[in-house]
Amino acid sequence: MSMTNTSLINSVEKLTTGIPGFDLIAAGGLPIHRTTLVAGTAGSGKSVFAAQFLAEGIKSHNEAGVFVTFEEPPEDIRRNMVSLGWNISQWEAEGKWVFVDASPHYDDDELVVTGTYDLGALLARLQYAIGKVNASRVAIDSVGAIFSQFQETRIIRLELLRIATIMKQMQVTTVMTTEREQEYGNIARFGVEEFVADNVVILRNGLDEQIRHRTIEILKFRGTYHHKGEYPFTVVPEEGLVVVPLSAIKLNQKSSDLRVSSGNQVLDNMCGGGIFRDSIILVSGATGTGKTLMVTEFIAGGIKTGERCLLLAFEESREQLYRNAKGWGVDFERMEASGFLKIISAYPENATLEDHLATIKNQIDRFKPDRLALDSISALERITSNKGFREFVIGIASFVKAHQLAALFTATTPDLIGGKSVTDAHISTLTDSIVLLRYVEMENQIRRAITVLKMRGSMHEKLIREYTIDGQGMHIGDPFSEHTNLLLGGAAFQPKALCSNWQALSNE
Amino acid sequence: MDKFQLKLYISGKTPRSENAIRNLRHICEENLNTQYEIEIIDIIEHPELAEDERILATPTLIKALPPPLRRLIGDLSETEKVLVGLDICPYQPKSPT
What we know:
The complex is a heterodimer. By secondary structure, chain A is of the alpha/beta class. In chain A, helix 13 (about 355-365) packs parallel to helix 15. Chain A starts with 5 loop residues before the first strand and ends with a helix. Residues about 1-10 and about 495-505 of chain A have low confidence and may be disordered. Chain B has 3 helices and 4 strands, in the order βαβαββα. Chain B is an alpha+beta fold. Chain B has a single domain, classed as Glutaredoxin, CATH 3.40.30.10. The longest helix of chain B has 17 residues, at about 15-30. In chain B, strand 1, helix 1 and strand 2 (about 35-40) form a beta-alpha-beta unit.
């Protein structure tokens, strides 16, 4: 056996799959030397999971793998997996990947059954293939298809059990995929799970408020810990399956007390001396209140001190952003040319939220920014369900924490005056700081007000200040000291502000 | 008539393998006179041969000649099915080829 990368959880050793996020919810990976059943409906990503299990073994651990295919011929699999960045032909040539082709023959309708039989030849071929490349991983995809090749269900079930048993003796770790007929209900067709399944993973591809929503769930791992529940995943080109571990992410993220500038000196002061390195600021405001300006200043502030900045723009094109920034005296074009700024502009509707999340993760991994700005998170909200959106925000928050980024997200409030927002309610608990930008109506004038509503782990100013915007950017001025109800709409002149309003705001 | 070329794939010397060999010999003697050759391949010893023919089940009997190529699985205990499957089929007037 080749070296395996394992970690000891309870008494059952795990084999890291290398599937991003999966090992986290699996508390280390798949139980080593066991068979795990991966069940899913058509199109749920079973074959990708199986192939990725082998691909990651080859890429990350130099472990060879055997792929038994009951359904598609090997040439189809080779071709399909190219888009995921896996050059199977090359691995075959290097002796790292072997196919056992058990896909149906053109003449299989001629198959005549003349008495009792077993799958001894399949097993012999599998053992031969394992020996040939000294494989430590085996993928069998998918056992449902073998039940259509051979009608005797009882025999096939027993044979699958025999294969699982022998794989264990040979100390290889096996992924066996199988079909399900519906997203919720029986684990697998043909009762496969009763035989093989000490370990069951379920892939789902359901509809949630008209939007495709892929999830993965570890149903059981015998004798060892795993995280429970469904976790969203997506299939990313050049990468394969990416699981978004969400609640499995440890919430004891270490927090930094290193402060950096928000890009606006007065706002830094309001925040008690700058924003924290690994924190998320949510800037909430109606259209035209200056959210994109705050993003621009946040990025300019980062680049001034030599930080790398990633800007994810879901509302405006790169050209519009260039033009806006120029209007405030910031040259995004030059910053991008210098390599310190990267702008990614995309229409929210171009992909599912899971795909956006995977892209963002990919960009963070590659560009390695110090700062991340997302303008706006509300634009993404409209392409998913509430649950999906919350999962997305948790996912992105986890990247921010894991990479110790300073992040600024904007959220658009629907009301011009006052500020009720579903978005805020969704994500306010996940952000570290909240800055409110609000229009206030005052003596027949619309003026702008800014306040720091929340600043986790720090003292911050509680005042509501007026600000103005001009060709040099945002200018935060004096507090509105003699008005009340500013942020709730309908400002009233009153010499002393009432604390109860704050309570109402915080409960948004 | 073309000579029958039959290849029987078995996995080890199990009772099932022995049954299949005995059943095949018996059927051939009864129905094909001397017009047949039987090759017995133990895939435990030669897994690469099972790979070449993409055999999954054992026992598997392949009729290589005369055409058409036929594959039968099982221990060949159901004689009638074997005869039909090999196109020998003495119960029907149709000629084997």
